[in-house]
Amino acid sequence: MDKAPDSRIGEMNVMDGSGHKQLTWNMGKPEEIAEAQATFDRLMSRGYSAFGSRTKSEPKHLLRTFDSTMEELVIIPRTVGG
Question: Which residues make Cβ contacts (< 8 Å) with residue 15, sequence separation at least 6?
C-alpha cells in the first residue's frame, strides 16, 4: 500500500569532500520542499550530478531538475577523469 503523499518523506544524500550529508523533507510541507529545492539548485549550479527514484527500491536515474516526489536523491560532485 502506498503512503499518503503528505506523509511521505524525501531524502537527499549529498556526497562531497567532507563525507556524506543527508537532508530530508516531508512531501506535504512546502517550507521543507523549498529548502530541499534550494539545496538541490545550489549544488547543481556548482556542477554536481543528481540521481533519484520515486521509491528507494527502484534504480536511480539522472535528474536535471528537482522533483519533490522523489523518495531518494543521491547528489555527487563532478568527477574528473585522467
Answer: 74, 75, 76, 77
- Where in the sequence is the domain holding 22, given as residue range(s)? 5-76
pLDDT, tens only, 45-74: 999 999 999 999 999 999 999 999 999 999
User: Taking the model in full, what pTM does it have?
Assistant: 0.85
Question: Would you say 25 and 51 are in contact if contact means Cβ atoms under 8 Å apart?
Answer: no
Instruction: Answer yes or no: is 72 within a domain.
Output: yes
Q: Report the candidate in 37, 38, 32, 40 with the shortest Cα–Cα distance to residue 14.
A: 40
Tell me if 62 is assigned to some domain: yes
Amino acid at 31: E
Asked if 37 contacts 75 with a C-beta cutoff of 8 angstroms, the reply is no
Q: Which residues pair with 19 in a beta bridge?
A: 16
How many domains does one find in the chain?
A: 1
